[in-house]
Amino acid sequence: MPTVEGLISQQLYTIDPLASVGRAATIMERHGIGSLPVVEEGKLVGIITSRDIRRSHPNRLVADAMTRKVITIPPTVSLTEAQKLMVKYKIERLVVTKGKDIIGMVTYTQIMSELGKYTDSLTGLIKAEIFYEKALALLKEGREIAIIFLDLDNFGFINKEYGHIFGDNVLRQTALTLNSLIDSNEDTLCRYAGDEFAIVTTKSLAEAEKLARQIVLNLANEHWPGKINVAISAGVAGGRRSQIRHPEEDSSYIVKNLLNMASLASTKAKKLKKKVVVVEAIEFKETASI
Description:
Blueprint: H1 21-31, E1 35-40, E2 43-49, H2 50-54, H3 62-65, E3 72-73, H4 79-89, E4 93-98, E5 101-107, H5 108-116, H6 128-140, E6 146-152, H7 155-162, H8 164-181, E7 187-193, E8 196-201, H9 205-220, E9 232-238, H10 251-272, E10 276-280, H11 281-288
Parallel strand pairs: 3-4, 9-10
Antiparallel strand pairs: 1-2, 4-5, 6-8, 6-9, 7-8
Helix pairs in contact: 4-5, 6-10, 7-8, 8-9
């Protein structure tokens, strides 16, 4: 999962609370940085930013101009968690700590730039890495999840018959249709890979199946370029894990297996020409134990 660790600069600059604001401004200008953690006897006591400096006389003490409430994060925090914290507290920087040590800072611009690498440029949907992260976050909140795995039928033929530009248009239109059908309060959609899409949802398994069937129907009735026929098969996995889940169980294991089950179910749907196949997690456990 993408974390802030890779964004931390090697060189960390700090300042003493008894230093002058002018001194802080000089350090920030010299090194091209927008803020400094304020450290007293090795302890983080505040942060001074370029905004604080603009509002203060250069002769004032850093202690009088700094912000005392500092939001810190460990380097293992995910990019999306860091972004949410910045939005929640309306701040542009987070101090990264490891134990009692300050190891760096990350900015909102860095976070958003890095998150952009996990957005699919063709469809505008998030990529699988962020999808995993969202599913894990839901499990950590104690929510049950279901996963819908969607795979376009005969997409290879469309690409070969009409060309990749035509195929790209089909993928874009598919993404738009899927986005119009999901509820962003309950569902997270990603382009998983190639012609595969996935949705993680907090809906019940029955509701997830209903959504999958609606997706299959809507895509079949879509007006596609060149009036070609485009169809999609869906596999749905989830449900009843709260009775078998153990506190020490690795949540990433649950996500990976749900996704694997949903993927296999979509393949089964293609073979059986059923369009939607549903599998419950507890059934997988029983099958896997044989």
